[in-house]
């Protein structure tokens, strides 16, 4: 079973520290939500986990330093969905999703039946199979978001890192997206998702990492992290909570 861990992880951008001293252990089988206000360091944390940013400290994949692993191996074991849905090439949706299989292909090789099956599975799960022959650059923002999630799922990596995967999605597809991420975790993957929607994180995430100004403020089950005190301190808001069994949290008012 896969695991990720960080030891005193720190990131500096433009001479400014955006993440500092973050240590955590993330085992397989969990959907982990990374929350915090704008500028808290969430995206930098995810990029560092993927080995895409220079950083202090260490990122460990199954106990081994990520920095010492070949990039091809990292790409097979960690799927990364970046923030935003900018597309620069007018590829058909099916070909775009198929890019998720590149880490598994030898140079100049063609996709195999197993790759095609992975592509089809990913497209069905994200409800984009009917868009297979559409040009990706002509899709709506919500359609692009689902297609790019499909590309990440097509890797079929044991770790999925998703930066704001619900952006541009309507409420039904937001719920479906969280169900997909939760199902990935239930199937044994480690899923780490940067999120802004407190209600969906409270309902679906097994663990929350709450960041503020580059520091880890709290970590644990949603009910232990997204408390009135932490929401007041980090977000300066109040919230309504339903009965614990309902896992219901509704942000209400600004406090300042």
Please provide a written account of the structure.
It contains 9 helices and 12 strands. The chain is α/β, with parallel strands linked by helices and 256 residues long. The protein has a domain at 3-82 and 158-254: 3-Layer(aba) Sandwich (Rossmann fold). Strands 6-7-8-3-9-10 form a 6-stranded mixed β-sheet, sandwiched between helices. α4 packs antiparallel against α5. The radius of gyration is 18 Å and the shape is globular. The termini are far apart. The mean pLDDT is 92.
In short, what is this structure?
The protein is α/β, with parallel strands linked by helices. 32% of the residues lie in helices and 29% in strands. It has helices at residues 42-49, 71-77, 93-98, 113-125, 141-154, 171-186, 198-204, 222-225, 228-234, and strands at 3-13, 16-27, 31-35, 56-61, 64-65, 78-81, 159-163, 190-194, 207-212, 215-220, 237-241, 249-254.
| SSE run | EEEHEEHEHHHEHEHEEHHEE
Number of E-type strands:
12
Low-confidence region ranges: none
Per the CATH scheme, the topology name of the domain at 3-82 and 158-254 is Rossmann fold
Helix content: 25-40%
Structural class per helix/strand content?
alpha/beta
Please tell me how large the radius of gyration is: 18 Å
Give the N-terminus to C-terminus distance in angstroms. Answer: 44 Å
Largest sheet: 6 strands, mixed
Q: How much of the residues is beta strand, in percent?
A: 25-35%
In the CATH scheme, the class of the domain at 3-82 and 158-254 would be: Alpha Beta
What is the mean predicted local confidence, pLDDT? 92
Kindly report the spatial arrangement of strands forming the biggest sheet: 6-7-8-3-9-10
Outline: globular
Q: What is the architecture of the domain at 3-82 and 158-254 at the second tier of CATH?
A: 3-Layer(aba) Sandwich
* CATH homologous group name of the domain at 3-82 and 158-254: P-loop containing nucleotide triphosphate hydrolases
Number of helices in the DSSP assignment: 9
């Amino acid at each position: 079973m896969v695991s990720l861990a960080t030891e005193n992880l720190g990131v500096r951008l433009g001479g400014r520290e955006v993440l500092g001293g973050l240590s955590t252990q993330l085992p397989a089988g969990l959907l982990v939500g990374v929350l915090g206000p704008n500028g808290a360091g969430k995206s930098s944390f995810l990029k560092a986990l993927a080995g895409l940013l220079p950083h202090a400290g260490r990122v460990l994949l199954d106990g081994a330093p990520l920095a010492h692993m070949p990039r091809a191996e990292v790409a097979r074991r960690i799927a990364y969905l970046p923030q935003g849905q900018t597309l620069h090439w007018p590829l058909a949706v099916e070909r775009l999703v198929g890019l998720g299989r590149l880490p598994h292909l030898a140079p100049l090789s063609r996709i195999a039946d197993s790759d095609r099956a992975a592509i089809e599975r990913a497209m069905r799960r994200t409800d984009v199979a009917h868009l297979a022959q559409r040009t990706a650059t002509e899709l709506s923002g919500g359609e692009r978001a689902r297609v790019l999630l499909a590309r990440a799922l097509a890797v079929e990596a044991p770790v999925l890192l998703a930066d704001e995967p619900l952006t541009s999605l309507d409420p039904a597809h937001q719920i479906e997206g969280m169900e997909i991420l939760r199902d990935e975790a239930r199937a044994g993957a480690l899923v780490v998702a940067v999120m802004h929607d407190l209600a969906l994180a409270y309902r679906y995430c097994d663990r929350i990492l709450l960041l503020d100004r580059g520091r880890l403020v709290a970590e644990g089950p949603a009910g232990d992290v997204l408390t009135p005190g932490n929401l007041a301190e980090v977000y300066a808001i109040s919230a309504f909570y339903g009965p614990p069994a309902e896992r219901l949290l509704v942000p209400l008012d600004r406090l300042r």
